[in-house]
Amino acid sequence: MDEAAHHDSPLLDDGLIKSSAMYHGDPGDIARGRALARAFLGRLQSVLDLPVSARAVGTVQLVVSELLTNACKYAPGPCLLDLEVSGGAVRVTVWDSEPTLPVASAAEPERVGQHGLEIVVAACESYEVRREPVGKSTIASVVLAEEPGARPAGRDP
Prior knowledge:
By secondary structure, the chain is of the alpha+beta class. Helices cover 30% and strands 25% of the residues.
């Protein structure tokens, strides 16, 4: 991760809460992205007292892992990770330099691997891919507290 490109903002002027990082496609970048997501969600709870369900913590880490894996595997050069909170959801955006848009494979229980995009689409509130002037952005949204009264992550009832 490029520390100079890492940005955390407790609360931006427009009401968004955001954390960003740039990665170079190194083997440890995916784990670093998951750690960034964990820390970001932890700050939402501890600093801003936002409800974050245990399911949301796991789903956001899974989405970050899958999207960064695809960027590191299929796109040359750096990739960017943005985590933003707005309207009770975390928006995970990964930009990479590969212009080819990903397509989820048809479900095949016998297939080994290449199920990540299927899982992301199934687990998220929304999913989209946008072609950019250079490369593409893959965006997935995860609801922070999907059920009223759901147990927040890391907190005992």
